[in-house]
Amino acid sequence: MPGSVVRDPNEYPTSLYYLSTFIQLPPFALRNSKDQLLFLSLSFFKGVADGVGGWRDYGVDPSQFSGTLMRTCERLVKEGRFVPSHPVGILTTSYCELLQNKVPLLGSSTACIVVLDRTSHRLHTANLGDSGFLVVRGGRVVHRSDEQQHYFNTPFQLSIAPPEAEGVVFSDSPDAADSSTFDVQLGDIILTATDGLFDNMPDYMILQELKKLKNSNYESIQQTASSIAQQAHELAYDPNYMSPFAQFACDNGLNVRGGKPDDITVLLSIVAEYTD
Q1: What are the residue boundaries of the PPM-type phosphatase domain, all occurrences included (predicted)?
Q2: Is the pTM of this model over 0.70?
Q3: If both were cysteines, with which of 177, 195, 217, 230 could 128 make a disulfide (CB 3.0 to 4.6 Å apart)?
Q4: Helix locations, 199-242, DSSP H
């Protein structure tokens, strides 16, 4: 069952991704630091999707499903086929398009989408699985996504399985995504990442790195995003480190210690005052 496989952490190489860009969204600007970043005149959209690695046992590249899911979301947003206040709708339409492909694209993926509506200054989110986001204000986490797990190391996921595996592979509905809406303020930091970050760095470590972010220029955001991703990567390969993943495993009766090698994607954004 792809969704329930606990992989040998040293069996596959891992990758680091972080992205920094500067975009202006009057009257707020989001100065932003990967899977996909999407830009609209009225909204700012970003999303991460993480393919379930257990599909490698079936000869399937897990990145194909997650990458196609995000590229489809990107196209829908660029075409204006979405409502900023309903990010689950973007996820639903994208997933339905994948289901309707003549040649099935097998795989599973978690997904996290955040949309800033510049007209209302509100952030709308949808999270399915164990990727997620943090909103940091004044050095504290004021909002965060809730991780969704069927059981240990088996996150909620969108899936397309071959006929013989239907009913065996976990396949959740996009409507199962946890949704939230809240106001943003100037200076808010929005971090979106895959579980490769959260499994290796607890909140207090992330906050320590964010304190190094002294201003909202492109270079500072890029440097901070890179630093967070690099530190998570190093911790992932520390056999003596009691990572959040190892602690969760112990809580579930498993004798585990060390980090969790995994692909790590970090997106970092700051809500800033618009300037010409």
Answers
A1: 16-271
A2: yes
A3: 177
A4: 203-210, 218-236
